[in-house]
Amino acid sequence: MGTIICQICNNTIDHFENEKVATLYGQCNCCDEKQEEGSK
């Protein structure tokens, strides 16, 4: 089983099935909204 973690706030975003254990970094919706507000 793998885990997707937000690279900004380190919250767990999702889990996925995988043969190997893996941790992937992405960006959660909460952090997406904060960045969009900051760039306006």
UniProtKB/TrEMBL annotation:
Name of the protein in its database record: GapA-binding peptide SR1P
Source organism of the structure: Bacillus songklensis
Source taxon at top rank: Bacteria
One Pfam family this sequence matches: SR1P
